[in-house]
Amino acid sequence: MLFVHNAGGRSRLGSSLALLLLSCALILTLAWQVIHPGPSCPLCLLQRGALVLAGMGLLLNVRLGPSPMHYSMVILSSLAGFALAAQQVLMQVVPGAAVSTDTLLGLRWPTWSAAGFLALILFSLLMLIVDRKWGDNALKRPVGLPGMIIMGLFLAAVLSGMAGAVLQCGVGACPAPRTAGF
Q1: How far is CA 56 from CA 59, 83, 130, 146, in A?
Q2: 3-state secondary structure of 103
Q3: 165-171 contact pairs (CB < 8 A, 24+)
Q4: How many Å apart are CA 18 and CA 1, to the nearest integer?
Q5: Which of 60, 76, 83, 175 is most buried by a 10 A CB count?
Q6: How far is 63 from 81, CA to CA, in rounded Å?
């Protein structure tokens, strides 16, 4: 039994909205880095990489239609990102640890990152339940203009984030990292 009428179309809409939020998060981290200059910590860069991989799974859902394989990409990369963010949060709890004061709405960046990865995991699990009828069948409909714009925004966010990291760190290791900023 299918719980939602036209789940494949709704999945594309849900994945498009999730991809839009993910792209906004990537752009926000890039803007924060421009406003507050200094090298990012290695865990922060790894979390951004996990976010990009989760975005690729959502992008595949938007472009090719819902698939358990695409959702598993989102879940696995989000689990890795959540583990990195949780490690960073726990490192800040250690007495005497150098802690960044960078906050957004009263929460530090790793806390926001952990919440975002958890939200991606829950979204993907919910969509796996709703989209179970579709299996690995790609929908034959072309992607509409809003979907193309969201995919382009994600691509622009990824490329600008990569360019920012290369400009900041070069092709080698980054200089002395900040302690906890995302």
Answers
A1: 5, 19, 20, 17
A2: strand
A3: 165/40, 165/45, 168/33, 168/39, 168/40, 169/39
A4: 25
A5: 60
A6: 24
Q: Give the residue-averaged pLDDT of 70-84.
A: 91
**How many domains does one find in the chain?**
1
Task: Give the integer Cα–Cα distance in Å for 108 and 94.
Answer: 15
Q: Which domain holds residue 165?
A: 6-24+38-92+106-169
Let me know: does 32 contact 182? Beta carbons within 8 Å.
yes
- CA gap 24, 89 in Å, rounded: 22
Specify the pLDDT at position 16.
85
Domain for residue 175, yes or no? no
pLDDT digits (tens, 9 = 90+) for 1-25: 344 455 456 777 888 888 888 888 8
Q: Which two tokens stand for residue 27?
A: 């752009």
Q: Is the pLDDT of residue 180 over 50?
A: no
Where is pLDDT greater, at 28 or 173? 28
